[in-house]
């Protein structure tokens, strides 16, 4: 989706502005840590992900991502944690990046992906839990996107791309022309989607290392493949997003595990992060489901559904209706664990066999990943963080979290984490606007501070409590002395379907009203200095920044990362042809809407705000052309501006030196215009 992260509640309506910030008084940390966060701290934070639990629920695999400053790269290492006690163990070395760990069902093997030696692409590696060195399992041609162990641990189901044919055309000095036949022909991170880019299923024999193709090559992508409990069948989705008019973009198929004809079971309105979970008897498959309405398909909140394999009938699990649920994980007894995004919080929950949903934590920490069964009193594994503690692996038992790892603990204790508090206010059309305020370093009640409206992307998704990459940017701004507003404007998740669908064919309207309302609240409540207001964001956050500065000159500095001010220029250039066709129609069908959404560039002569534009030169999500055009407009108009282009970077910056550079540049830009 375009254009792709607990405290005292402060509910101050605009009418209560005369009371100042009395509701925020006393919110400073009880005991100050040594210092506010620095860029070095941000770069040193370890990112934990890819959590996988053993069949007995007593062990968990996960990856730790860290920066290799010397080589200017990020690397993943595989770690093993015990839920019953003991220090976590690193399983892979420092010289190679290793990802996607998994246990074999029989418990003997630990598998992972890694590119080592002369490998052109990552290969599958096995570690024997009885001891010994890791060994490469065969020589797989093509890019392995996902894999699953068979129930008997003898075969691994691969989802991988077709290999590029060998031949003289592979010479870098004599590249082949790109031939396009599909409507959808670009994807961020992949570039042009040629035939070799499509993903299909293969079976890899563990004993011999031989891979056998199960689904035919062609201009489609298979994903979310899962074995049936008895290992006799495989279920998977086929992506039909190449049909821009189709709302049911994920087609569910079931095929014999040995290969052969696949049967179409159901056509499902697609969502990102899809997963398939078979029932124990193999009669139903649970999965995520979006909306059948094409116009709002891009704003669909994922819900849980069950499809009958025999009849193809799909039924929504009613307890997840109007909720944003993600990352479904199978548990025993027909239960399914999910993550619920709910008004500034990410909560673990369990859906039982009857369909009843139960939240299983108090929300003090934001849980982003979970797996496994409760191994008695040891609980089950999750990855979680809070506003004052970056991610660690925890055991969740009885609604309580117990830390199993301490990858970021020493660093966290050195930082004076800025307090993050909820606030609510009301827009002029009656909408309840919810957000969070990150207080500036050294905050004292009764003072006004330079304030930055920091806008999340998406627009689906939400600003939530926890310490991920995006919230670290808020902490970084706080350390520079700014109050930071994070607003879950209309279109965000966590507030129900209708709230998320509001933006359909109406960009830059009610979302902008909500953002203005939050700034009004910050000024009227006595926190924000009205003469030192800044705004910024990345992706849809950059797009909204462009809308804000063209309509409101009270912002004294702006940062627009991976934004666009002229949607007309990106038709056929970015990856959103399906969204355009479904939601607003083609430019020749609804030129009025295309012109409306191009307001920032077409009315750029209204902009007075000094603005910094950024983007990656290889971004096919929101191409840097959007920033280039806005930059040229402001240059011609004499408005202070700067453009920063990051070579070969896609929508999300990957190179550590570029990540550091971005932080330094937007902080310096705000300092130039907001500090005095």
Automatic annotation (TrEMBL):
Organism superkingdom: Bacteria
Protein keywords: Hydrolase, Protease, Serine protease, Signal
Residue intervals of the Peptidase S9 prolyl oligopeptidase catalytic domain: 471-675
GO molecular function: serine-type endopeptidase activity
UniProt key word Hydrolase: yes
Any one GO BP annotation for this protein: proteolysis
Gene3D superfamilies from the UniProt entry: alpha/beta hydrolase, TolB, C-terminal domain
Protein name: S9 family peptidase
Species per Swiss-Prot/TrEMBL record: Novosphingobium olei
